[in-house]
Predict the structure.
Amino acid sequence: MAAEQHDSAGKKPPVVVVEDFHKTYGSMVAVAGLTFQLQPGQILGLVGPNGAGKTTTMRAISAIIPPTRGRLTVDGYDVEREPVAARRRLAYIPDDPQLFPDLTVTEHLAFAASAYRVDDAEPKAAQLLRRFELYEKRHTPVRDLSRGMRQKLAICCAYLHDPVALLFDEPLTGLDPRGIRTLNESIRERTAAGAAVLISSHLLGMVEDMCTHLLILNRGHARFLGTLEELRERYPAEQSMGDLERIFFLATEDEPIGAVG
Ligand code: ATP
């Protein structure tokens, strides 16, 4: 049963809820008590140094890895107890999408359509392929696609079932400028229609351009969660820098990545 209730003020419920999320691998603490929500229309930038826990968080929301502790929901579905329903409402696009080398572009979309039971998939798939300039390659097997084309195919497959939660791990890897523009436009359209987006990236300029909110992670801990305006209020002296870079270093510098106990 989807959680489509509205509260007394008519506000829609969050698309993604992450509550006290912990993930450990043996003695290695990857994420230590992370809590945040993604509201419809929000684009949350997830930034942090290598090993901060960004991919771990995205994989847990996507029901790929179980949390060690905590609760995660997507569109009201608990990702541990109702993983299939949760997965139907989301799309996770990793930076190295796992595709089938021998299947063509069209076959991938047909596979995604059947996995997600998408009605009217063919015209939708054709429209997505045209938009991401892959239509000419529709009969080409994945092994003969360029890296950027594979990334675009993964995005087309992810969009096919109109997920309400979109999770992008370094989405611009390998995309050409036109591909970047198309992706950015498509993200804005989908959030305008009520989807929520989580984007993990090291490209702070892109985060600043695209995101409505920011979550800075360091060694599995949230160092900041809020809007970009709130971030600038927190670090007023750094505003003159004109970008996030200096703030990023300040927010993460007191706990350099190194040996974790
Ligand atoms: P990057 O910016 O490099 O992509 P990240 O923020 O996405 O980093 P994660 O991939 O979430 O970082 O990794 C967080 C920590 O968890 C790292 O220290 C990593 O080595 C560890 N880790 C991730 N997956 C595993 C695993 N399967 N087994 C053991 N440790 C893991």
